[in-house]
């Protein structure tokens, strides 16, 4: 047995370093197995391992132990900034402290986020909020931001308490790449992003998120010269990649390796251009001002036509008019008339942004996107309207951009296997070709069961008499079932919806009634996610909470104990057939003679259902019920796959049986 494996076994054993720091510690066989499997994989050159670690395995500590004990540089990536912060602030300090008992080596661990999460010092110097940004309700936030600007050491926006993700203030301050002056910036050496990049080179362990990882790899493969690549690179090369919440990587990569252009983006560009104009003599401003007024009008017309149809008769001509108008702008003339290096750099930055737009339009609205395997579509409303081209098959891009390096790689999540098999995940993630287990690209696979006793701690309830979701009576019957379930749980309930429309309608119909019963009612979007979860958890100490939520609460949410004892899912989480990406993937698979339902829609729905159900049990002491208000899981042949993907909960079909189970199995856990 290798020295590393001996250290790992000691780390997790009953009298090991971890047990000294965790009250009532009990070794988890699956946790040790996962850690040792990673160690085994490291013995191979460019090893590859996929691990589904069921809820309660403790996968974070399993891979952190390896990362901190091995003699190599390790990259750890997780799905969201929230999970990234949780890993860095909760699990990592425990692992670092425990490792001291085994290894005397000091490990430098660093948290990295995308550029837009950091303060731009140059923008901060010019920050003068006015007009739409000044409202009485924002005054306290503005005060916190000004304090942050003066005293921050990291520039990380997370230091600003309760700032909304879409804060207009932050869009004026962040260090996003398209407005960065790079090495021409007078504050380059002091820049938070510069310092972050330099510090990352010396880190033993880097903790990033999937969006940052994809953005970094996208910049690398789409940047020309070696000098440009060196500047674009944020994440240094590492020996081992550990990709946590790996089930989310395909969707995140689809977004980040695409191309998009939005009306708000154009508005910001025009505003920044107006700032540049003020730097040159007034006599030379008219040419550019008139051109941009015309461009603004052309873009408004283009997006109006696109919102009706991508094939609208006016689209082709408007695209040509916009490209021609861009070509008439002589930005070099502006640069020549600027008085100092900083001004010239700002003009140069603007010029880079300008040059991208006609090229992106040509790609998305011409023949290039389709021939490259991209689908183009419109999303959003009003100023949020965005034209986007996304890769239809992200697996090829993932394989080339993320998995083809010299590093060893571990992909892990609690939800990767469909009906006990990893084939679907391997195919769609591009991590390996299914059926090539004997090739040099072979992937080690491991499915570890949860340590929780699902059969005695939980039940899966599907009402036997509820009508199909397509029926006119479904909304009424669904609301009646929700009333029954909440009367049983007395709060502590997540209501998870597959669409915002269903969420809003049900919330509108039930809110007053639930509040009249003394329950606190919450809805996704009314406050930041973490704040909602705090209030929901606290509500159980008084009245009991009910949270109406959709997509972002189906995963990455960890509410432990009695505070969450009921999870209700409105219907099977099949993606809408009108979703442009799903539609394009369906057409592509059908053209190859493949079943898009069996190979794409069904596995995706199975994993989504597994994620939603996974909100219920988070510790060995948790107990409760997952209710699915959709009978198709028993009435359709494909239901066997969905049921086979779920944990082994007791299956109940009648309200009377659920009441009996609740009184006998669930209530005693909360007494």
Q: Which secondary structure elements does this structure contain, and how are they paired or packed?
A:
Layout: H1 3-12, H2 29-42, E1 48-53, H3 59-69, E2 74-78, H4 81-99, E3 109-111, H5 121-125, H6 139-151, H7 168-171, H8 192-201, E4 205-209, H9 210-222, H10 226-232, E5 240-243, H11 249-256, E6 259-262, H12 263-277, H13 286-308, H14 315-328, H15 331-337, H16 341-365, H17 368-371, E7 374-379, E8 386-391, H18 394-401, E9 408-413, H19 423-429, E10 444-448, H20 454-457, E11 458-461, H21 474-489, E12 493-496, H22 500-516, E13 520-523, H23 529-539, E14 545-549, E15 566-569, H24 580-591, H25 596-613, E16 624-628, H26 632-635, H27 639-645, E17 650-652, H28 655-666
Describe the structure.
This protein is α/β, with parallel strands linked by helices and 671 residues long. Helix content is 47%, strand content 12%. Helix 12 (263-277) runs antiparallel to helix 13 and helix 24 (580-591) packs antiparallel against helix 25 (596-613). It is globular, with a radius of gyration of 27 Å. It has four domains: 3-114 and 194-256 and 393-448, 3-Layer(aba) Sandwich (Rossmann fold); 121-186, no CATH class; 259-391; 454-670, Rossmann fold. 39% of the residues are buried. The strands form three sheets. It has a seven-stranded parallel beta sheet with strand order 3-4-2-5-9-1-10. The two termini are 47 Å apart.
């Amino acid at each position: 047995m290798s020295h590393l494996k001996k250290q790992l076994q000691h780390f997790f054993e009953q009298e090991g370093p971890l047990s000294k720091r965790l009250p009532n510690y009990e070794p988890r066989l699956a946790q040790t197995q996962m850690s040792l499997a990673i160690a085994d994989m490291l013995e191979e050159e460019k090893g590859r391992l996929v691990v589904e670690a069921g809820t309660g395995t403790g996968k974070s500590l399993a891979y952190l132990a390896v990362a901190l004990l091995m003699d190599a540089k390790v990259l750890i990536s997780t799905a969201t900034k929230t999970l990234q912060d949780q890993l860095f602030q909760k699990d990592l300090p425990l692992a670092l402290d425990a490792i001291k008992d085994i290894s005397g080596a000091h490990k430098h661990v660093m948290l990295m986020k995308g550029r837009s999460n950091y303060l731009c010092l140059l923008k901060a110097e010019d920050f003068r909020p006015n007009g739409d940004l000044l409202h009485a309700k924002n005054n306290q936030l503005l005060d916190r931001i000004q304090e942050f600007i003066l005293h921050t050491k990291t520039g990380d926006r997370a230091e600003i308490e309760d700032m909304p993700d879409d804060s207009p203030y932050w869009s004026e301050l962040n260090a996003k790449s398209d407005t960065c002056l790079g090495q021409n910036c007078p504050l380059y050496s002091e820049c938070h992003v510069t310092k972050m990049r330099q510090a990352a080179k010396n880190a033993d362990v880097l903790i990033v998120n999937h969006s940052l990882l994809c953005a970094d790899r996208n910049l690398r493969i789409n940047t020309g010269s070696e000098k440009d690549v060196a500047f674009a690179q944020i994440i240094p090369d590492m020996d081992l990649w550990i990709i946590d919440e790996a089930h989310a990587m395909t969707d995140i990569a689809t977004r980040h390796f695409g191309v998009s252009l939005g009306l708000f983006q154009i508005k910001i560009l025009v505003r920044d251009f107006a700032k540049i104009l003020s730097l040159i003599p007034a006599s030379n401003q008219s040419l550019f001002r008139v051109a941009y007024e015309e461009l603004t009008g052309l873009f408004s017309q283009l997006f109006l036509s696109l919102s009706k149809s991508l094939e609208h008769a006016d689209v082709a001509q408007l695209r040509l008019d916009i490209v021609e108008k861009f070509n008439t702008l002589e930005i070099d003339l502006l640069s020549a008339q600027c008085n100092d290096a900083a001004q010239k750099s700002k003009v140069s930055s603007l010029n880079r942004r300008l040059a991208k737009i006609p090229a992106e339009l040509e790609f998305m609205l011409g023949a290039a996107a389709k021939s490259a395997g991209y689908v183009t579509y419109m999303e959003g409303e009003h100023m949020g309207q965005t034209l986007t081209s996304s890769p239809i098959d992200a697996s090829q891009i993932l394989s080339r951009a993320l998995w083809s390096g010299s590093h060893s790689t571990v992909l892990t999540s609690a939800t990767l296997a469909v009906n006990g098999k990893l084939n679907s995940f391997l195919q769609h993630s591009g991590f390996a070709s299914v059926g090539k287990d004997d090739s040099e690209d072979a992937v080690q696979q491991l499915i570890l069961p949860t340590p929780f006793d699902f059969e005695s701690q939980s039940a899966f309830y599907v009402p036997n008499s509820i009508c199909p979701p397509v029926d006119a009576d479904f909304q009424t019957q669904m609301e009646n079932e929700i009333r029954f379930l909440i009367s049983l749980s007395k709060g502590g309930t997540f209501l998870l919806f597959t669409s915002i429309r269903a969420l809003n309608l049900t919330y509108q119909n039930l809110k007053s009634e639930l509040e009249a019963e003394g329950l606190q009612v919450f809805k996704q979007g009314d406050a930041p996610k973490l704040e909602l979860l705090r209030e929901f958890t606290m509500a159980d100490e008084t009245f009991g909470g009910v949270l109406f939520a959709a997509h972002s609460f189906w995963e990455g949410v960890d509410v432990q104990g009695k505070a969450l004892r009921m999870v209700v899912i409105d219907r099977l989480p099949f993606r809408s057939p009108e979703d442009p990406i799903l539609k394009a993937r369906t057409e592509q698979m059908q053209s190859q003679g493949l079943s898009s339902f069996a190979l794409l829609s069904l596995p995706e729905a199975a994993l989504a259902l597994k994620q939603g159900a996974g909100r219920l049990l988070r510790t060995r002491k948790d107990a409760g019920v997952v209710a699915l208000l959709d009978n198709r899981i028993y009435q359709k042949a494909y239901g066997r796959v969905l049921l086979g993907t779920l944990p082994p909960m007791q299956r109940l079909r009648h309200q009377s049986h659920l009441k009996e189970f609740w009184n006998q199995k669930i209530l005693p856990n909360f007494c």
